[in-house]
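Hey, resending since the last one bounced:
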Amino acid sequence: MPPLLLIHIGQLLTLQAPNSATGPRRGPNLKGLGIIKDGAVLCAGGKIVSAGSTKDALRDPWLKRNHKKVIEIDCAGKVVLPGFVDSHTHPVFVSPRLIDFEKRIEGASYEAIAAAGGGIRSSLEGVRKARKQLLSDKVISALQAMTAYGTTAVEAKSGYGLTVESELKSLAAIRDAAARWPGTVVSTLLGAHVVPKEFEGRSQNYVESVCTEMIPLAARRKLADFVDVFCDRVAFSAKQTEQIFEAAERHGLSVRAHVGQLSETWLQPLMRFHPASLDHMDHVHDEDFALLAKADTVTTLVPGANYFLGMKEYPPARKLIDAGVPVALATDYNPGTSPTLNMPMAMSLACTHMRMTPAETIAAATINGAWALRVADCKGEIASGKDADLAVFAVQDYREIPYWFGGNRCEMTIVGGAIAYQA
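The structure tokens again:
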């Protein structure tokens, strides 16, 4: 793979930490994009070699000696930023949930649809019956589509099988798809998504199955990096979530959780497990803002779900950011509540419905997404030694990325120093 040089970049957003800050970006630092005008990025061996001005790049002695070996891309009038890190997705499913979609239009609530056998449970049969190859093909199709929007790293959850066999099959499908995609996939076991119908009224028995069968097998087969739990009134209690987290900890897996989507959950008991992220967080206890501000746990917001569910209220992004809580953005790609692969669309919703600034959405969709997946050592910034994952947008100003909602202004996506997508 020959070296790649992007030059004359209108706005190069390096996302390099302002004031030598460490950890996920929070407060005023969330707006720090490290912008270089007429910028240049040199990539070689899958890594970023240097990032700075075009003037300095063209003076580089190595480049002068090796210019014939280098692929040069003129990015005049364009914006280049780190590839997006989509830190919350559910790509292992077979069919869209169109009946749920229509019922919501007719006025049915999330809980009413779930009680009638819709919602997450309605996706189970397809995943349970599907062969692993079909599921893997579905996942790789989603990953490839994400690349076209500038996404280069993705968290992929299981959670639509909810038997030991189908959850492990889903994780294996994620692993197989990841091997066929040039980007980075972080895998999450979400066996505790909801209580399946066969365990109705016996949720604790299902929790035992997750703890004593799913988690040990997923860990032993190295199929998952994280364990996730849907902790809410329609799924699992905080006490059950703690039990599942304890099992994950015993087997060397890190944890994250869906929390506060439909109702408030007191976070203190969960924080002792140092979750990488707490996701959705539409409902947060006033006391928990200070608790979250002291931790490196990232609050991952998924406004696509609020939009698709027709909710009037969105997560309190402004209050979280102003309190010093590190915030990330993700698509929540799934068949029932957020069927979108478009990270710039999630950013646009964050601007218009959660009062985040365009700069804050970019940091939340890149470096803080990397922190939410614990891959910030190599992702989320354009800096020497980091992975050469870049998105090139055919816009003159970075604010246009969330401004042009619903479309796609991504012109090129570079993964590991190679062009993975070109419009």
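The mean pLDDT is 95.

Sorry for the duplicate.
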